[in-house]
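Our collaborator T.R. sent over the components below with a one-line note: 'Predict the complex.' Nothing else. No constraints on interfaces, no templates requested, no preferences about which chain binds where. So this is a plain run: every listed entity goes in together, and whatever single assembly comes back becomes the starting point for the next discussion.
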Amino acid sequence: MENIIIKPIGIIHSPYNSSEGIPIQGKFKKEALAYAELLPEYETGLKDLDGFSHAILLYHFHEQKEEKLLAQPYLEKVKHGIFAIRSPYRPNRIGFSIVKINKIEANCLYFTEVDVFDGTPLIDIKPYVEYFDKRENVKSGWIEKHFQNKNKVPKQAIL
Amino acid sequence: MENIIIKPIGIIHSPYNSSEGIPIQGKFKKEALAYAELLPEYETGLKDLDGFSHAILLYHFHEQKEEKLLAQPYLEKVKHGIFAIRSPYRPNRIGFSIVKINKIEANCLYFTEVDVFDGTPLIDIKPYVEYFDKRENVKSGWIEKHFQNKNKVPKQAIL
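Returned assembly:
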């Protein structure tokens, strides 16, 4: 199979310059504000995204140079297969976040529910669609035990 | 910003060799069975994924050579910004599907809820996590009007 060449479409500006205080998923710490600045040539592609409440961002974990097949997630000390966790140490190091859209102005998408480092190269934006992306009867494997209390975010979920 | 080199981690084998009969999202036609065959060196990364009911697949829309900033989705004849639709004509042509895990055997992940063509290069697998990936109070922009009747899949959702 041939390699695939990805050209970043922009950059993510975030208040997180280190892992301190960053949530493992943006929904666990809602107040931080970030924005994705697209290269000017992609601005047209944002048309009508402002009708959606949430967007999916794909980006490159550019600070991780190492790839692992087994790794320890933030939630516990047990190692799992890299495809059963959301760790940045994954092959191809592509990150996936669901963020809450605040506003769109020109080539910039402002959002909250941020779990991305400042300076992260952006690869794609997709609309989050209730009718496509919400599933029922979901089993969340080794993660279930950390969310037994649905009203409480585990303390390991914020670094 | 530098280009990013992606090495496919495997290939998706699917019953869909053309767009005929393929759903625009796997959840709209549940019966088809497909599997992702990882390169043998990635098999270890699947450890513990079998505890999850659903997985997120990232892959390359390898059959699309053209990129557009405005495009027409399957659901309607109106053009929207490429980042407000899920069209394969997007910059970097990365596809995203949530699939239902059937079983995992050695380096193969068998799944249903398939919306991917046979032979598609696989880039990443992530666990779908109820506590991370389901959002409440979602607004789905131009897509809302096609799902007013929550019990009925629009006929344009299957090609």
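Summary for T.R.: The mean pLDDT of chain A is 95.
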